[in-house]
TrEMBL record:
Species the sequence originates in: Candidatus Avidehalobacter gallistercoris
A GO molecular function held by the record: GMP kinase activity
SUPFAM superfamilies, per the entry: P-loop containing nucleoside triphosphate hydrolases (SSF52540)
Annotated ranges, domain Guanylate kinase-like: 5-183
CDD domains: GMPK
Main location: cytoplasm
Protein name: Guanylate kinase
InterPro entries registered for this protein in UniProt: GK/Ca_channel_bsu (IPR008145), Guanylate_kin-like_dom (IPR008144), Guanylate_kinase (IPR017665), Guanylate_kinase_CS (IPR020590), P-loop_NTPase (IPR027417)
Length: 188
């Protein structure tokens, strides 16, 4: 009998490569469903509403919190971010494994609600390389980058609560490691 669908949570510090690794992972594992989060942060150039995020006003976000629409939500770097519950539950019910790309506080909320979820902490090869990637992305102001750097030590300290830690040294290698985690889970 096929094992039931699983929820995988990918998190780690800003700029480590979560978005890049998730995109490459989804290209390889077509059966995975990606949960598009809602956020109140402003849209970056090239980001599409409903594809990268659902971009909401603070009022709309809080209305949805009140309506119980989020599986988890958190304030991250001064904005709200949340996972839409109906999408995740529907996919799992239909037997599809789901990927969430969320911050460390959200990840631990998910683990409490759904202890079977597998938490993957994506870590940088070094702090210097992380900063290099964050600056090189050219999407945040120096103030925004400083804010993200201030959270780094706290975010790294959360690694111990995760089921797996994967170093994002090379995208393809990190993706292969996550694929092995998924394959092991599917064969349980
Ligand atoms: P996050 O989603 O964790 O904030 P991104 O996926 O946006 O991070 O990646 C941050 C920057 O680092 C991007 O410019 C991306 O192209 C780059 N990057 C991601 N993974 C790697 C890697 N393994 N090696 C080198 N650069 C990377
Ligand atoms: P960014 O603004 O760089 O896209 O994301 C900032 C942070 O918010 C990242 O750590 C990202 O993983 C996190 N994030 C994105 N979506 C969600 C979500 O739905 N819930 C939570 N808790 N964090 C999220």
């Amino acid at each position: 009998m096929a094992s039931k669908a699983s929820l995988y949570v990918i998190s780690g510090p800003s700029g480590v490569g979560k978005g890049t690794v998730c995109k490459a992972l989804l290209a390889r594992e077509k059966s995975l469903a990606y949960s598009v989060s809602a956020t109140t942060r402003s849209r970056r150039p090239g980001e599409i509403d409903g594809v990268h995020y659902y971009f909401l006003s603070k009022e709309e976000f809080l209305r949805r919190v009140e309506a119980g629409e989020f599986l988890e939500w958190a304030t991250v770097y001064d904005n709200y971010y949340g996972t839409l519950r109906p999408f995740v539950l529907e996919q799992l019910e239909h037997g599809r494994d789901v990927i969430l790309e969320i911050d460390t506080n959200g990840a631990l909320q998910v683990k409490k609600l759904m202890p079977d979820a597998k938490l993957v902490f994506l870590e940088p090869p070094s702090e210097q390389e992380l900063l290099h990637r964050l600056v090189g992305r050219e999407t945040e102001s120096p103030e925004e980058i400083a804010k993200r750097q201030q959270c780094l030590a706290y975010e790294m300290s959360q690694k111990e609560y995760y089921d797996y830690a994967v170093v994002n040294d090379e995208v393809e290698r990190a993706v292969d490691e996550i694929r092995q985690i998924i394959a092991r889970r599917r064969s349980e």
